[in-house]
Specification:
Keywords: Electron transport, FAD, Flavoprotein, Transport. The chain is an alpha/beta fold. It contains eight helices and 17 strands. The strands form four sheets. It has a seven-stranded parallel beta sheet with strand order 7-11-6-1-4-5-12, sandwiched between helices. α2 links the parallel β4 and β5. The radius of gyration is 24 Å and the shape is globular. Bound molecules: flavin-adenine dinucleotide (FAD). The site of flavin-adenine dinucleotide has 30 residues, from α6, α7, β16 and α8.
Length: about 350
Amino acid sequence: MSEQAPSPPARPTGRRKVELDPRLAAYKGVWVFIEHERGAAHQVSFELLGEGRKLADALGVELAGVVMGAPGEATRRFCAQAFHYGADLCYLVEDPILAEYRNEPYTRGLTDLVNVFQPEILLLGATTLGRDLAGSVATTLQTGLTADCTELNIDPENRSLAATRPTFGGSLLCTIQTLNYRPQMATVRPRVMSLPEPDTGRSGRIVEHPLGLVETDIVTKVLEFIPDQNRDQAQLAYADIIVSGGRGLKRPENFQLIWDLAKVLGAEVGASRPVTQAGWVSADRQVGQTGKTVRPKLYIAAGISGAIQHRVGMEASDVIIAINEDPAAPIFDFATYGIVGNAMQILPALTEAFRQHLA
Ligand code: FAD
């Protein structure tokens, strides 16, 4: 009698319906951490309040801003701004220790707030500060964090956060849910979500909470803030017009044509990854999955093929003009206007035409 090989275990098919742990039901509300530096709130916080509002409405819960900082007029102003952009209430942690961002006291303040008031969702900007804080808060709370999300929704089946982000080098999107832990944390890069219209007539309530730390509890000290004078201060994320160059420009000296056109248009300069990696421009000018996400009114791409990793960083631009000598270049699939030709001839012609037109 011949023996048959055991059949392999059946692969799961389709979506698995998952019931939430009833203990998690105590967690309610959507929170947005309001990031600020040198007296100004970061716009990404307001973009997140716009998304947070939609999530809170879908769940039928309140939207809260979280403001932390030294006591003073600024923190109240950030709360007022949070209300204008959709928050119903603000949790406010004020202490002189929080004057400058340091990971330890901010992590302590935010994790304490979460443990006391138990939000179900906590959103932060994927900025340098936000990434630092989100990682340590998620680890301290032992909960799930989905970084660099491009879309946030509520799963109607189980009311959990469905956080979508690129994966496999940007070639796929995956949606991640944190089913067994709370809060569900996510970070979103600046400009990925649109900025809602502020309503200056909106107001809300402020819930104050103590920090409960003394300076000697904290091992890191901020001695001085020295702005980096040498850093190329690219303001790509919030630019209205961007002129970007890619490998099709062939030589670093040809990249000057991008600077020339940008200057005439009052635009910022962007680049694809091969260009920043070759050192033609600084890395903070890279647009794309591992660079900046931009959504200007006008994006001019010269000598850029339109690879998915570049596209995800700029496809939300209002108008995209592509200059490429290959009529089959992928960028023509999503550009608003396409110019087929040699960028080294077209860029100077455009610069001259705009110079005359705008004179
Ligand atoms: P190429 O793909 O080489 O395209 C050059 C284009 O120029 C071609 O379409 C060609 O037809 C055209 N051309 C040539 N000569 C001329 C001419 N004389 N005039 C006009 N057109 C001309 N890339 C990014 O940009 N940003 C990112 O954030 C990013 N992140 C990445 C992350 C990962 C994990 C990976 C794997 C890749 C990433 N990349 C990123 C790289 C990305 O996959 C592409 O390789 C890159 O975007 C290509 O850059 P490019 O279009 O300048 O160059």
